[in-house]
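Q: Could you fold this chain for me?
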Amino acid sequence: MNAAQQNVSQASPQNQGTRPTTVRWRMLGLLLMVITLTFIDRFNMNVAAKYIQQEFSLSNVEIGSLLSAFVLGYAVFQAPGGWLGDRFGASRTLLAAVIWWSAFTALTAWAPNGFLAKWLGVMTSLWIVRFLIGIGEGPALPNTNKMIGQWMAPQERARGNSLFIIAVGIGGAFTPPVIV
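A: Sure. Below is the predicted structure, expressed as structure tokens.
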């Protein structure tokens, strides 16, 4: 029996004499930090877009396309990201996703000057990197939901998911002041 199953079984009505541990709440706290980070990462380009547009003389259509690149990668990779979580485990998939999108977020600063920009242009280089960030963030929500289902007792899952949704708002609220 793995830790998540033990945690759920400890909180089940059959084990009323056994006090559940707090591990599941610490795990939920880590998941909330991951989701907050995904939304900070998602919204950072919205805040920075006007500066990027000015610096690289991008048109409104180009900056709109750049913003859409993330959404496209994100939408395309949510279902495969969920499948990867089913196949390899939600925590492993989520860890790989965090590493993936963090690496490509760091490469955003490099994209306008890197080899792709020299071959394909600044706009295309930025677009590819933003698309790859979206691919990395696609698995985050399905695998976080799976982990909440694994770690939280059935009677606690609604509260766990409510806190998960709060992380979305926190990420959106903190991004503009942090990025500016």
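A (continued): The chain is about 80% helix and 0% strand.
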